[in-house]
């Protein structure tokens, strides 16, 4: 028999940690990944980069600079990881606990919509990048947690709202499975002003992918309370540009931490 829902809620973080550790033990062979040189993976499949520092109102630049230290440490554990057919990448199993004794420092952490400092903070930038890149490959995202808060306006945003993946050790993980016959290698690291990543494969790509926002709505749910929701989909195209499929990716919903601006999307007033 499974653990009753009420008991699971009372156990909270301890239950989620045990559940994750149990998964890592029982799926060890699928999650045990090798790190290899780039030789043998000459075919670029997807790449992305994001700026390490952004000047936004209320954002502590010192914490942003500290975040870079955390990103370097985590990226070093992922750089060169190979995902063979049938294997699964667990972000947290590969990265390990982001704690001070391993060199992690205070970075930006979002707690209930408020920005604060926390050891290992800022690693969501890495899961955001990894999730976005993977959506442009034939790899399958099997676990992803959406952000519950939309913290900053769209100024400077280069990907659709809700394209990222939040993370919290060890329960909120990003996991990617290779359900293809090809083998993929991940490259990721801090380069100059950017966090950069790419997926390469041992064989050329047979398709390309276009991620798009299919619907978008902002609701006014009380005095100063706004929520934002959208649906992400992706077009699968062959190498001649012909549409092969149009796939549902996810539905996002988040509380906005700022007043919506004109043009951000249709605003529907709260009912009642």
**Rg, please?**
19 Å
Q: Per DSSP, what share of the residues sits in E-state strands of 2 or more residues? A: 35-45%
Secondary structure class reads alpha+beta
Q: What does the average pLDDT come to?
A: 90
Which strand order do you get reading across the main beta sheet? 1-3-10-11-2
Mass-distribution shape:
globular
| Uncertain spans | none
Largest sheet: 5 strands, antiparallel
Task: Write down the domain tally.
Answer: 2
- Order of helical and strand elements: HHHEEHEEHEEHEEEEEEEEE
Distance between the termini: 43 Å
Strand tally is 15
Q: How many helices in DSSP terms? A: 6
Tell me roughly what share of residues is in helical segments.
10-25%
Can you characterise this structure?
This protein folds into two domains: 1-31, no CATH class; 33-204, no CATH class. The protein has 272 residues and is α+β, with helices and mostly antiparallel strands. It contains six helices and 15 strands.
List the helices and strands and how they pair.
Elements: H1 5-11, H2 13-26, H3 28-31, E1 34-35, E2 43-51, H4 61-78, E3 81-83, E4 88-90, H5 91-95, E5 106-111, E6 114-119, H6 124-134, E7 140-143, E8 149-150, E9 175-177, E10 184-191, E11 194-201, E12 207-222, E13 225-238, E14 243-256, E15 267-269
Parallel strand pairs: 8-14, 12-15
Antiparallel strand pairs: 1-3, 2-11, 3-10, 4-9, 5-6, 7-9, 10-11, 12-13, 13-14
């Amino acid at each position: 028999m499974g653990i009753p829902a009420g008991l699971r809620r009372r156990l909270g973080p301890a239950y989620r940690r045990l559940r994750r550790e149990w998964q890592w033990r029982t799926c060890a062979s699928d999650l045990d990944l090798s790190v290899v040189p780039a030789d043998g993976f000459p075919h670029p499949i997807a790449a992305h980069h994001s700026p390490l520092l952004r000047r936004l109102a209320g954002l502590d630049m010192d914490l942003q600079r500290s975040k870079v230290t955390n990103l370097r440490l985590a990226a070093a554990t992922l750089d060169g990881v190979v995902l063979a057919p049938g294997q699964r990448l667990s972000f947290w199993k590969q990265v390990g606990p982001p704690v001070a004794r391993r060199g992690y420092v205070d970075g930006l952490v979002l707690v209930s919509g408020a920005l604060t400092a926390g050891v290992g903070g800022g690693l969501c930038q890495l899961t955001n990048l990894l999730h976005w890149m993977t959506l442009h490959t034939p790899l399958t995202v099997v676990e992803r947690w959406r952000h519950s808060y939309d913290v900053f306006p769209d100024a400077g945003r280069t990907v659709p709202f809700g394209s990222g993946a939040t993370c919290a050790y060890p329960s909120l993980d990003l996991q990617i499975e290779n359900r293809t016959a090809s083998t993929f290698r991940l490259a990721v690291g801090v380069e100059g002003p950017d966090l950069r990543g790419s997926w390469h494969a041992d064989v050329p790509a047979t398709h390309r992918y276009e991620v798009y926002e299919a619907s978008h709505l902002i609701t006014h749910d009380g005095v100063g309370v706004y929520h934002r929701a959208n649906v992400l989909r992706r077009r699968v195209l062959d190498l001649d540009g012909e549409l092969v499929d149009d796939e549902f990716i996810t539905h996002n919903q988040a509380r906005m931490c700022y007043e919506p601006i004109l043009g951000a999307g249709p605003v529907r007033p709260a009912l009642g």
